[in-house]
Amino acid sequence: MKxxxxxxxxxxxxxxxxxxxxxxxxxAQDAIEWWILNREAMDLYAxxxxxxxxxxxxxxxxxxxxxxxxxxxxxxxTLHNLAxxxxxxxxxxxxxxxxxxxxxxxxESAGL
Length: 112
Known about the structure:
Elements: H1 2-21, H2 28-46, H3 50-68, H4 73-88, H5 92-109
């Protein structure tokens, strides 16, 4: 189990590095809306309100996908956060599905 957590942590670090590597080109209002939702989800998670954090992260994902495109770093960051929130709330299957979606998106973006 600990080896699996280490693998998830390494994958998370890789995702964050990839997300920061590509500078986003988006409309300011869309970026602000996404940032506010993402920040709210993280605050809710930190307060232990896992279900609400997931709901807000899902809305942030919807905003990111619609406004930035599926291959945008903010979509990847939001999927990463969503997976983290699912796992933190004990919803391991949904967390795994979010990570698999993220891995698929990253693989497609990289041409893999």
